[in-house]
## 1
Amino acid sequence: MVSNQKLFSVGNFNFRLQHLLIIGVLILAFSISALIRSTPASYDLELFEFDPFFNYRATNYVLENGFTNYFEWIDEKSWHPYGRNVSETSQVTLHLTTATLYKIFGFDTSLYNFTIYFPLIIGSLTVFVVFGFVRVISGTSAGLLAALMFSISVPIFTRGLIGWFKSEPLGLFLAFIALYLFTSGIKFNKGRISFIKLVFGAMFLALGLSAWGGVIFFLIPLIIFFVALPFIRNDNKFLIWAVPTFSFSFLVFSFMFERTSTFTIGYAGIAILLPTIFVIVTQIIQKFSSEKNKIRNCIIVLTGFVASGIGIFSVSSFNPSFRYLHGINPFLKYQDSLTDSVAEHSTSDMNTFFITLSIFIVFGLIGMWILFSRSKIDIKIDMRVFVLIIALAGIYVSSVFVRLQLFASIALIVVGSIGIIFLLTKILKSSKSSSIKIIFAGIILMLFIIPVSLPEDRHWISWSDNVPSIKNGGSFYKISTNDWNDAMDWIKNNTAENAVIAAWWDYGYWISTLADRATLADNSTLINWQIKKIAYALTTTPENAWHILNSDSSQDISKYLGSEIILSFGGELPEDFNKRYFEQNGEECKQILMPEVFRSNLDMKQDYETCNPIVKGMDADYVVIFVAGERISIPDSSVFLYTLDGGGDESKKHWFAKIGNQELSNIVEEDGMTPTAYFMENTTLGNMIPFSIYKYVEVNTSRAFDEYIPGLIPIYYKDIKFINAEDDPFYLVYASPSFYSEIPGPFQTVLVYKINSEYQK
């Protein structure tokens, strides 16, 4: 064959034409991935979305202060006044890996630019690991096709675009290395080599989990596969040490980091240990069982382990994060509006599912049909079962929320590449007609090209055409401005270094990283009630909000919250909290207690009425809000009118109301979006939005009305309400440049309000 033609030798290795073809296809896959992921750079070279700014800041801290100090770092600019234990609550491996690579490969590049390119490069390099993983299972051709499919997968590349310095790119890279080493080690009984591969596979899986918490969902197919192994393999001597080697190595490596250890000492650890012990027990039992009783005995043991697992989980005191439980059980309902308001936690809808995966679904169904059938396919039974488990588990998990759709994509890539290569090989071998072979290959190629390029406004590449969030504020418009950068510069240069900024959590990382100021909340959502207090402050009266935001963190502000609000935030009334707290801790407020995963050891001031942090003041100095909409020019006039609801805080008011446990009908009209007169006149946010309603307009007829009627949209005029530094509880001190622009069309503006410490009402 031409493909086996020897080109040259390197040592004992003969480099053949087929190797050149493999390298060429992999380079093509890498290039396609890199080109797609680099699309946002056409707008501006910036970090993308919100979390990357914290990750950049944390990586910079490692470089400036060293690894040891990083693990002891309490970030005082996060979650004021509580701070954040960074190593306990963040993606440690991402920060340490990037810092190390920057020291080696950074050269003259700034760290900021290095972190912008990092996800593009590491995400594109993953095509090589995907190739290796699928190659182990089903051969070189399937591996190459999987690499190409990975490079154009919408759910994958949209969470690894240039500037996407978040968890997924590195997490996926490490997880696929782990899968490659695991399958390679478990497929062949090669003693010491298998042992080394399994140990290193476990290490990379633990590192991947530390880089991205979503890697925990890779454990689902592994755990199910462990349970299946005794039923499909008979090499008792190998399995009895191979599976425990991987499992126990993973648990050991997981304890290297605080965050991953919280996974493994809870449900995840039990979920790994029970199947591992099951494998050990069944291998011992099978050794002494007759051939006809082996399966029966395995089923009996499995029944006992399932019952034990249910018993352990039902009586255990472990309290895993709701989002992880929801990933396992899609039928669970969100516990509060805060979780539901996060876009990436929204449930996957079928429309998006089919648009983003389209032809992958067809390929995946073909692959599963082939694997389920009795077709003569050159894949060992254990690997065939593993692929089916990956496929079914990936699709199942992805049904929960949008962020996990990449698991469906991974599942379809693996099983689809195997199925298509099997069909292609079968047709090429069975058909003597060259035209049939060409037609079939052409159909497969066309099926790839169509979703990548059509339809014009919804093809796959279009999903990469996104403006970096810092440039459009996360608004609905494809505009790129410096409003947020300018606003952060203003705060950094015009406020005290110890100033505290109140803002919705979306903007927390931008404020702490770019403005270098402390914030009340950010995108980590560590303390739910802190965010709920901000939501309440924005939707309550300015007088109430002033007391909540301005009061010192030692002051009891429960009378401005009310008993109903305190209880709805998951807290206790001050008198009840004090009684319980002092019984446990004595007559001093020694610690601020955090719910769920986070605790801080910061001492509280001794001037207290209650130790309950939920009813304490927020100690803020400024409030930042973001408004987006469209500017409408009036013919023969220098005056502009405006439409809002462009994706800024004006579009989040219904979420603020729900999260803050306010009466929704007071905030929005029956359409769920149009602000009520009460909202505009009586709430903090309504008064901070520097616009007032002029008329309500019927879009089709352009008729204007003074009162809201369903179907009408509000038209606004510019109206700054808080501007008096002497008499107002808040007053405007900065508005970003777009606020003053006279160019019609989409606009966005960042507004900074000073909290008037002298205001008394």
Note: The chain has a mean pLDDT of 88.
## 2
Amino acid sequence: MTKMQNTYYKTIAGKIAEFRKQGFDDDQMEELRLGLEHGVPVSAYAKKEYFAVQMRQIRFGLEEGLDISLYNDEKYDWFQMEEIRMGLKEGIDASIYADPKYSYEVMRELRKALKDGIHLEKYATVGAEMLRELHRALLDKQNIMPYIKSGYVPEQLQEIRHAMKLGCNIDPYLNPVYRGSAIREITEGLVEGLDVSVYADPDYSWQQMREIRLGMEQGLDISLYSKNLYSWQQMREIRLGLEEGLDVDAYKSLMHSASDMKKIRQRLLQEKEKEDEAELSDAYTTDSLPTDSLPVHWEEYMQKLPADTIHFFVDEDRMKAYVYAGKAALPMSKEDLAAQLTMHKIIKGLDVSVVNHLISGSIKDQLVVIANGQEAVDGTDGYYESFIGETDYGIRMQKDGSLDFTDAYLFQRVYAGQKLLVYHNATAGTDGFYVDGKKIQAVDGKEQPRIRGRGFRLLGDSHTYLSEENGCAALHEHNLSVTKMLELSSADNILGDVDYDGTVYIKGDVDGNIRIHATADIVVEGFLGNATLESEGNILIKKGANGNEEAHITASHMVLGRFFENVDIHAEQIASNYFFCSRLYADKKIEVKGNNGSIAGGNVYAGYGISVSNVGNCNGIETFICVGYDKDKECDDYYEQSGEVEKQIAILCNSLKDYRKNYAPEVRNTMPVFLKLENALYTKEKELTELKKKAEQQKIESKKYESAYLEVYGSLYEGTTVVINDAVYQGKTIQGVMLKNIAGRMSVQQMKEKIIL
């Protein structure tokens, strides 16, 4: 430590000691210490009346170079301070909402609206939820003021806005007494083209509306249950009975509870199934009895049996049982037959028609199947039915293994209200059985994770996803995004940079040192020259890129293109047919397709692995390949963030401890500050749990780095340096190899055969 540094830290220590004498608690002292260390004027918040969390917001503002005078006042709680600080940070005139009479929730909505250039301060008294709906309506150019004046609340307004967005004329059916869920049922009916006047009635609950709507969609006779005296559960049982083809007159009386209706419906369904089986059984005649052959050695055995014998057999797998009746076989009594079946352990799956024929004596000189086991049928996994086209990006593989991007796409055009996906639930497995009655356990299907993303709405059935935007949709794994789209003929004539909230689609080339940023995907139909592309989704450059070291491509997910020369790329995954003298950084994988696909020159990094035909070239071009753990990620900020949140939790706990110590429960539970502290503690504990979860996921991901690899199906040329988790390979040209770091040493294994990537 230099003399100057020593003096500096002594000065800080002296100031800290002085603050300690003034009676600041430990949490407040921590904020003062951090402020001193970061070189901010801590006198601005060195006030004992401030909670430590308030001090922190002031300190953050000072560190960010903001005018803290707007909120440096104890009349603001720390939530309010944070909203004012965020507004200042975003360049918004935060003075518009910097008023202690506004809750932090109201402040937040006013701030978000101002960020979009919308002034809502004159409506601040209506509350945060109403402000949120007003903000969203104005963004969508919707006029919801008539509905607000009519007394509709935010829950209702949300559904009204949705109907307006879908182009539904819902006004004739609205009633202020409807819950939001009821308005949603009416909207869904209008979308399906139903006569919603049948159930748009305040006498119905929204659940009753749903049952009537579902029946109308199925073409059922809803008049049998569309009486408001029925509970929605009773309606449901009648609807299900109609769907199953049952005579619902047997149980639709109001005297039956929903539970009773269910029991009767299930009994009727069982009886119907038995009747169906009996009809099938009656279709058999003696001449058309079901027969099945036994192995040859059983046929030889039967020839030796007496003419009046009746003999039973069971297959080794216990899935079939047979009965052989000789030419002179006599009818069997029910009692004798039952005893024989029990003795041979033929218990289940009996063919009623065969049993009856044995009793009547009509089976002669025949071998027939008397019982069939039933294989277990595993349930099917849940799946999403897509209405937005294929999700394979339209990229086709050519004969040589290279990729053809001619018809490639990243998204599908959609319109507001368009059906995007329908989820089909997993089905339960059906247990099977052996003829001896033992069960064969089936496996139930697994449900799929819920779709995440933005720009869509999930209907009340929890299965149907509708678009909320006119734009484009992209579904990748379980993430669905519907975004607005900016379409450009080319980027040649663009003046200045492009910063777009949505997808950017360019029909031509991109050049001219411009920057294009999109919150979703970027698609370039032509070539990329000297330009910068930044996407929070994927980037596709169909014809390829030659950037002369002036092209920079950054994507949160994938970067795809025919070829890349002299380009700087950062992405999660990168795929192409050819890379030349480029700088590539992929969090996960890099794939170079085709028998002639190559990485020649440049610096290339991939976290999990690289698959390529050729690396370097015959001229010995200098090429650097690094695969495996990224040392720059060793200090992952999840742990750092967790530590910060833990400190915040400690501060909040200490503050709550003081309140619990100094005030009786009936007093403190009415204090707004105490309640806000409790709410903040809950929020921060939830945040900490999420951060720790992400940290654990990061640990799992790090294991993939440990098994990092370089696959070279063609030639790994001399002049190439390969580093895999600190193990280094440099050598002469070799063919068809797999390189890995095994126990700290580079392993070079020969590939058995050339594979088209």
Note: The CA atoms of residues 364 and 627 lie 77 Å apart.
## 3
Amino acid sequence: MQKIRIPMNSFQYGEVSDSLIMRTDTAIYAGSAQRVENFLVMAEGSVKKRFGLRYAASYNLTYDASNPNKSHLTHFIYDDNEQYVVSIEHQKLRFFRLVNSTTTSLVDTVTADTSNAALPFDQDYLSQITTAQYGDVLFVCHPLFAPRVITRTSLTNFDVSTFTFDSRADGKQIYQPYNSFQNQAVTLDPSKVSGDGATLTTSVAYWDLTGSATNGNYTSSKHVGVTIRYHESDIEIVSVQSATQATGNIVSPLEVRLAVIDPLRTTAGSALVEVTHIAHGFAGGEAITIVGATAIGGINTSNINGARTISSTIIDDNTYTYTAGGDASSAVDGGGNVKIGTHAPTRGWSEQSYSAKRGYPAAITFHENRLVFGGTLAEPDTLWMSKIGQFFNFDVGAADDIDAIFLTAATGEVNEIRYLVSNRDLQVFTASNELYVPTYLNQAITPTNAQIRKQTPFGAEFVEPVSIDGATIFVQHGGKSIREYLYTDTEDAYTATSVSTLSSHLIDNPASMAVVHGGFELPDSYAFFVRVGGEAAIFSSNRAEKRASWTRVTTKGRFAGVVALRNRLFVNVYDEYNKLQLCEFSGDVGLDMYLFKAVSNNLVDVSDLYTNTQVVDVVVTNGTVESHLGSFTVNSANKVDLTAYAGHGFTHAYVGKKFTAKIVTNPIDVNAASGPQTGNVRGVSSVILDLKNARSLKVNGRTFSSLSGFNGKKEVRVLGYSRDPQITIEQTDPLPLQVNGLIAELII
């Protein structure tokens, strides 16, 4: 019989999957455990019992297994003193203000927008909502409704309105994106050049016929309210009569500015003027009006401009002729900035990109002082960037540096854009690939240099990516892996390395995630993941040491969402009574859904959350010392009676639900002279634990309750033999515990 001391100097890799059970030769095996529950991995490799969950607010919502996603959490941060948790629910918004470190208050509930219309949020698709904030405004996007603008009007009030694009000063043109959804050979024929009630005829079936016709009109058509861009003029659709005919109001006279300057050409001794008009779409004999042309070839302005008729013979797709009011004296090119006034059939028309017909942006962010939209149902792989500093103006103009930018990810397949992240570059996460819009030599993105580059082929699930330590972590399409999207100078490209390979069992099918930077009163960054089934996990990393650490998080109930506000982390939790509560990870006390209350006449009022007959645990404090009094039943007045402990000098109490913190080591093994002992019967005679601020714990079922903030090494005798001997460290009391490492004495 031989005794060998096996050091486990840290738990820096957290909980790993059973697939590592035979890798006793690796450093990861020695620095991890089979189960790490309700602990945080510290930067130095020790594990500290997680903080409790402070009750913040109730929703008055009950768990429904068929649709548990009743609240999508996001944040609204104006400054350090004005921060809000925003709950997006079915046709409702709730705003919880962080009053101070211990108080979170519901300050506003909104159920209608400024036009008194119901909010478009539906609980069936809350998980696909994306948001972006700038100053006092929060933008909300989803492909099934027009973007909404949430505006903070005071400390306790918010308004909701529909995103509205800027328009020209005279109101004649809307600065929004347009696209030619029709085949380029399809023509649009307006019945007149100005006014309301213009008949718009397409050469093939085009108009939406949703619903049934009433008096010959499809008033429920998804094209109703849509703006058509006829060259540079806008026409608003007011009704649809058939698949080829609609009625519209002409917002601005139908004029076409020709694409080139000086597009006219004269021939000496002839009244015939040749016009360069790219993709004009005209037929011979159509009526036009020449506008703004200067005198040319001896023909004065009154004779070169005005109502004209295109010659019966069209030269080609880009050129035609008309007869001027006089013969030219010379053959020259000229005319200046010419416009053609016409309502003739043309291929030069398009439709607004965002509508009930075409869908709305799925993704949103701010990047380089531009508002960026990404992906609609009809244009899933397109990016739209506003003009610099003008977030409601998407006018491409003359492609100057400040003008709007439209980009399509032409990567050989349709990349459905799901999320946009402003980081080192503009990062684009799609259903099938990870892309980015590069910034060159620290120069701003402009219409002339903007491009989309494909990087990695994994795709993103419907969980919003978050930034951590210079990288962006995202859930791979399918929900089986968490990847770190990171630019490396050595590769001059982005990589997407999995950080969940060793702990994949903890992150299967994530529903939401958030990152706290320097949170939990600790200097490190942590990512919190909530799974669809209500389980949760915490991730931390040390890239320099190539370390990724995962631990599991449990509570009495189930997690239902998470959001971070800088260094504060809030979660939605269905408690053990199936009621949805908003809680904050806060306080070095091992209680969940806890209330911190003053003790008055030996009574603690818990009516904020708990009612008669419910069982709670109580930790009391006099400001410096905390003691666990045990479990209590709430009385008929919704109070906890501490009369039995009168005279003990405590002033306040934490009242909530205790949780278990547990570490189960990997099987204790060693490579002896005869080889690995895996599968052989062996025993553990003792364990030396290195502890910090330990108040109570169990080791392999043996209880140590007399610890009082113990710091140092504690030896525990452990007897028994097994083919896979393990050490279980457990704490059920709501008190602090930190385990730095251990040494096990193995008998073989």
Note: The two ends are 6 Å apart (CA to CA).
